[in-house]
Amino acid sequence: MKTNLYGLNGEKTKEITLPKTFEETYRPDLIKRAFLSIKSSRYQAKGTDKRAGMKNSAEYRGRRGSYLATINRGISRLPRLKHYPRKGRIGEVRKVPQARGGRRAHPPKQEKKLREKINRKEKIKAFKSAIAATANKDLVKGRGHIINNLEVPLVVDNKFEGTKKTKEVTQFLDKVGLSKELQRSQRRRIKQGKGKSRGRKYRRRKTVLITLGEDHGLIKASRNIPGVDTVLAKNLNVEHLAPGGNPGRITIYTENALNQIKQRVGEE
Q1: Spatial CB neighbours of 126, under 8 Å, sequence gap ≥ 6
Q2: Which domains are seen in the chain, by residue range?
Q3: pLDDT tens-digit map of 11-23
């Protein structure tokens, strides 16, 4: 597969050959699993104390005539306190889920399996397939990216890695025809749920992914552009290429990045 190489002025300079990875078979099932595997590896296990709600003297006594027996007294047959607690009084119900200070019926358990597992070969296959999806125009448009007649993937000269100003990065993206794409992420939406009060109130759309071989200032220059992510090729993974597990993100590669991808997938 061949594509054009763009210069910093946004014009085509020459034609280059892409790595064979860009011709990989499209596997959305593996991409989704690899995405979930990466995301779930960051989950923090949580759970309650196994003895929570059970640290008291409550006991159910059903034998007739015994001390504090509840049989034939017109009250529910439940475990009740035998001694004065810190809060409450003798005879109050404890331990059961419906009681004040009782245990929870189905609390979160720390031993719950949170991580999505994936085989090593499947993970490599998913990575290759996610890279190939960035060269599929139908998939890129299917994600909602506005690319017009721009060819994908977009490969840029290595000089782009030395860009040190946000203004220069934005100007380059405008020159290659991605100005409307950047406008998609200007609007931020308020999330649903508890996360609004935990420092993650807003969400934006993902736009351009810039993949570098080496960083000479571009990561810092582009980090303030909404929706744009910049990553080194050695750290590139499925989560960058397919946010939300949906492949086909519009991606810009430098020549150095393509060479590193070749090394990672074993083409060199």
Answers
A1: 27, 30, 31, 33, 34, 118, 238
A2: 2-38+115-265 (3.40.1370.10), 44-113 (no CATH)
A3: 999 999 999 999 9
